[in-house]
Specification:
Layout (H helix, E strand, L loop, with lengths): L4 E6 L2 E6 L10 H16 L5 E6 L3 E3 L4 H9 L5 H18 L4 E5 L2 E3 L1 H8 L2 E5 L3 E3 L13 H9 L1 H10 L3 E2 H7 L4 E3 L4 H13 L3 H14 L4 H16 L2 H11 L9
Parallel strand pairs: 2-3, 3-5, 4-6, 5-7, 6-8, 7-10
Antiparallel strand pairs: 1-2, 8-9
Length: 261
């Protein structure tokens, strides 16, 4: 287990905790590599049904560790594009490619690449007082680590542009109104609420989740006719899974389905 990313299991739910509270869980190379490794390993683990990602201390993630970025720049590593391609792009890809549902439990602020990390997850829950901040413009940078992709698709061009060029924080209640989070709860109820959702998902049809996630990802880039064909292909695959067959039997027998692992 990495010290910068803590891992714990509760049944079929894996919790990953960013663990650099002294930097508000800012991301450096060690953290992005460790988190990517944990997500990829969980995606392959048949015992894991869902993943919760959160932060230690008072923040979810403050984004890139600018002290680390500056130190590397002084050492001659000044190409931020190369840094993104090496450290952040593989992490975001790993999260999006993971077949298991990922829930971001925002215990505090998610800013910059930390917001990108949260937006890459499938669901987000926020503690009261948490803020979502497209902070890049405050340091003269453009949104990265997937933020341009996620924000424009989740919010539309107008609102995404507003947040990107102002850097204004979005509080938890506004994030709920915008659909960026699915629930806002008191801080002491955040992890119980996230774990309840995660356990519910972990008990569900896991192969179906993987197909749904694959379909959602691809549908973003397709027209209606292409999407209809994609749905036909995925439905044919879903119907052959043991989960679907059990769910259909349960419906006909008027009972709750029991998905085997």
């Amino acid at each position: 287990m990495s010290e910068v990313v803590l891992s714990s299991r509760d049944g079929a739910v894996l919790t990953l905790t960013l663990n650099r509270p002294e930097t508000l869980n800012a991301l450096n190379r060690e953290t992005t590599h460790a988190l990517r490794a944990e997500v990829e390993m969980a995606g392959r683990d048949p015992e894991v049904g869902a993943i919760v990602l959160t932060g230690s201390g008072r923040a979810f993630c403050a984004g890139a560790d600018l002290k680390d970025v500056n130190a590397r720049a002084l050492a001659g590593e000044k190409d931020l594009g190369a840094d993104l391609r090496t450290n952040y792009t593989p992490l975001i890809r790993a999260i999006r490619a993971c077949p298991k549902p990922l829930i971001a439990a925002l215990n505090g602020s998610a800013a910059g690449a930390g917001l990108s990390l949260a937006l890459a997850c499938d669901l987000r829950l926020a503690a009261e007082g948490a803020q979502l901040i497209v902070v890049f413009v405050r340091v003269g940078l453009v949104p990265d680590a997937g933020s341009l992709f996620f924000l424009t698709r989740m919010l539309g061009l107008s609102k995404a542009t507003e947040l990107a060029i102002t850097g204004d924080p979005v509080n938890a209640d506004e994030a709920l109104r915008l659909g960026l989070v699915v629930a806002v709860v008191p801080s002491d109820q955040l992890m119980p609420a996230a774990m309840e959702r995660a356990h519910r998902l972990a008990a569900g049809p896991r192969e179906t989740y993987a197909l749904i996630k694959r379909g959602m990802e691809r549908a973003l880039h397709l027209d209606l006719e292409q999407t209809l064909e994609l749905e036909s292909q995925l439905q044919a695959l879903a119907a052959e899974t043991p989960d679907a067959q059990e769910a259909i039997r349960a419906f006909l027998e008027k009972r709750k389905p029991v998905f085997k692992r």
